[in-house]
TrEMBL record:
A Gene Ontology BP annotation from the UniProt entry: aspartate family amino acid metabolic process
CDD domains assigned to the protein according to its UniProt record, in alphabetical order: L-asparaginase_I
Protein name: asparaginase
Domain of life: Eukaryota
Entry annotation: catalytic residues: T88
Pfam family, one: Asparaginase_C
Stretch list, region Disordered: 1-20
SMART domains listed in its UniProt record: Asparaginase (SM00870)
Assigned EC number: 3.5.1.1
Phylogenetic classification of the source organism: Eukaryota, Viridiplantae, Chlorophyta, core chlorophytes, Trebouxiophyceae
Chain positions recorded as substrate binding sites: S57, T88, D89
Gene3D superfamilies: 3.40.50.40, L-asparaginase, N-terminal domain
Domain Asparaginase/glutaminase C-terminal: 213-320
Amino acid sequence: MPQGHMVLKPGTGGKYHQPGKSEALKPGKMLGSLLNMVPELKAFASLDLRVAFNMDSSNVGPKQWVQLARILDANRDDYDAFLIAHGTDTLSYTASALSLMLAGFKKPIVVTGSQLPLALPRSDARQNLLDSLCCATAAFSPPHVHLQEVALCFGGRLMRGNRSQKTNSSAYQAFDSPNYPYLAQMGVDVSWNSRALLNVDTVYRPRFNLDPRVIRVPIIPGSDPRVMYGDVAARGVKGMVLEAFGVGNMPDRAETGWLPWLREQRKKGMLVYLGSQCAVGPLHPELYKSGSAALKLGVESGPQMTPECAVVKLMLCLAYRDLPLGMPLAGEL
């Protein structure tokens, strides 16, 4: 059994609280309540609980990601693994942020949540917690799998955190990993995909700065970005996730405005990542005239990142200008 396992509860939007009860619960009482409702958790590890903050996950952003990253970093040497209970709306953003900010952490950080509150009869919270803790402590029981990354566990699936997306608002299997294999699947047994696990061979270097001045821009047929978005650089935007068609195509006629607009924004120092509106498949913008033109303007592309991960990585690269956008940090590319 692991010597210590920290459960961080950054705010779940009420999913792990009893309906009608105050969210302003003290850590000791919350841990006692959690262990009373899910006593099987004690079979996996000795647990400590820390409530990082209480808020609806739709309000969680860069400030809270930095707060969580600092807590994890400060406790890295004191615990064998970490479990974060979090609301589902921004869960993939948080998982992506922690994976990039704490690249090289080399200990399991498993994030999870639930579609229904823990106290409800059909809640998925109980099973998600047990599955998450089982995966986080897998190194201490056969087959002794050493998880060394930020992973998202939900609906019987363990996914790389920065490859995950919330794809269903009401199903128990609310998250998927469209462009990367599952790390594990939970049935009667845990079926591990060892070849998909991140092999960490880099020096741990935490980064606690993020520049949130980033925007997502989907290309819409018939829209002129000069009219629809205008001079976003002049309004303080520093980074852009440009969501193109297919493998990286976009309108190339001058009257549509996309390439002239990109040229103007790049001249003003805008950092641009070219992604796709497709959830699955590779990026090859060089195959098209417009994509090649965008690359010549200094727009960066490469292996497909999820939009959630791309946004966070732009925030990180804007804060650390010596960090190339195309350099893999935590298996996100």
